[in-house]
């Protein structure tokens, strides 16, 4: 599946025309994760559909979902902008940036400098760079461009050898450990427990995907994660503010 998505992205980049720059307030993604409202930072994802699960949320109102996440004290948002595989849209990200005060990660498959510039223009505060999708030198090139453009980067890895390949080149400020294998879709929070000790102390660890309950939250926190990125579990509930409270095992969202 990852190879198919990357082929689509190459085609999209060939046809890409940069949009007008949106005037939105910049908010530091890194600072928000480093100074969470509570003991473990939450990046709450606005995710309508996915390749592994199909349609996740039928009555999808991206702006209302973002407002509800903010009311539930999420520290940052992740917004899927890919149309073909996730039913996302760049306009979702811009609309959300104009509505809430949280930093927003553009969740897409970034493989080219043009997409980094596009992310700036649509109002993103951070982008995702996927270790399994990019050679370490190329990933570093995009990382430097993003940082120079004022974007933070969530550098995601699934496998240990992907992480060590990147660390041979540089130390990312934020490392995401993806609990989902993007080739097989097998998902287990054990992946965070396996990899976290190899991440340098100066990097902030985000545990991503497949986080379904409070036990998972506690497990990845114990492994060294300072933040979690959660999509489907929060999107499946009818009210996203309450969904955050349920996930963190509290009555109200102030976990
Ligand atoms: O979610 C998928 O099925 C997927 C398939 C192929 C590539 C990427 C995919 N997901 C992107 C993500 O990073 C997740 O949306 C994110 O980590 C949240 O995961 P979850 O909490 O399990 O929805």
Automatic annotation (TrEMBL):
- What catalytic activity is recorded? 1-(2-carboxyphenylamino)-1-deoxy-D-ribulose 5-phosphate + H(+) = (1S,2R)-1-C-(indol-3-yl)glycerol 3-phosphate + CO2 + H2O
Q: Which SUPFAM superfamilies match?
A: Ribulose-phoshate binding barrel
Q: Which NCBIfam families match?
A: PRK00278.2-2, PRK00278.2-4
Q: Which molecular function GO terms apply here?
A: indole-3-glycerol-phosphate synthase activity; phosphoribosylanthranilate isomerase activity
What pathway is this protein said to act in by its record?
Amino-acid biosynthesis; L-tryptophan biosynthesis; L-tryptophan from chorismate: step 4/5
**What keywords tag this UniProt record?**
Amino-acid biosynthesis, Aromatic amino acid biosynthesis, Decarboxylase, Lyase, Tryptophan biosynthesis
> Does the record's keyword annotation contain Lyase?
yes
PROSITE patterns with a match to the protein in the record: IGPS
Name the InterPro entries on file.
Aldolase_TIM, Indole-3-glycerol_P_synth, Indole-3-glycerol_P_synth_dom, Indole-3-GlycerolPSynthase_CS, RibuloseP-bd_barrel
- What protein name is recorded for this chain? Indole-3-glycerol phosphate synthase
Q: Name one GO biological process term.
A: L-tryptophan biosynthetic process
Q: Where is the Indole-3-glycerol phosphate synthase domain?
A: 2-247
- EC numbers listed for it are 4.1.1.48
**Family per similarity comment:** Belongs to the TrpC family.
